[in-house]
Amino acid sequence: MAELVRFSVAMPEDLLEQFDSLVERRGLAKNRSEIIRDLVRDALVEEQWHDPDAVIVGTLTLIFNHHANDLQNKLDHIQHTAHQLIISSMHIHLDAHNCLEIIAMRGRSEEIRKISESLLGVKGVKHGSLTATTTGTGL
């Protein structure tokens, strides 16, 4: 583990009070320093996510009605065309009509975003979202 370096931060009192409330909500194992480190890591990961060539990992969640006309075949076709990006997928039957699909991917940020947008754009997909992160060296 890297050596810890101390520094000070100045902020308005009301902002510090809100920050302390956040620290408290995060639980016993968290303190101001840990929360600040978490926030910095989040900002660095987000910065890498915007680099189209950064290698990221992501999960795409989709909610759809499996009775929609040829929807599953369309989703499968898109996934097969991007098989090199897809690590795994899980299909869950939520009820008699609705399914949840979770797709784990790894690849260049730009490629992951494009395949996600293609899947989210298929007619019949009710809702979905991409969550991405990176192992990022030094994070």
* Oligomer description: single chain
| Main sheet properties | 4 strands, antiparallel
Task: Please trace the helix and strand order, writing H or E for each element.
Answer: HHEHEEHE
Q: Count the helices. How many?
A: 4
N-C termini distance: 11 Å
What order do the strands of the largest sheet run in, or round the barrel if closed? 2-3-1-4
Question: Overall 3D geometry?
Answer: elongated
Strand residues, percent? 25-35%
Number of E-type strands:
4
Rg, rounded, reads 20 Å
Structural class comes to: alpha+beta
Helix content: 40-55%
How confident is the prediction overall: mean pLDDT?
90
Features of the shown structure:
4 strands; 139 residues; four-stranded antiparallel sheet; alpha+beta
Description:
By secondary structure, the chain is an alpha+beta fold. Helices cover 40% and strands 28% of the residues. It contains four helices and four strands. A four-stranded antiparallel β-sheet has the order 2-3-1-4. The mean pLDDT is 90.
What can be said about this structure in brief?
By secondary structure, the chain is an alpha+beta fold. It has four helices and four strands; from the N terminus they run H-H-E-H-E-E-H-E. The longest helix has 19 residues.
Write the layout of secondary structure elements.
Layout: H1 13-26, H2 32-50, E1 55-65, H3 71-81, E2 86-93, E3 98-108, H4 109-120, E4 125-133
Antiparallel strand pairs: 1-3, 1-4, 2-3
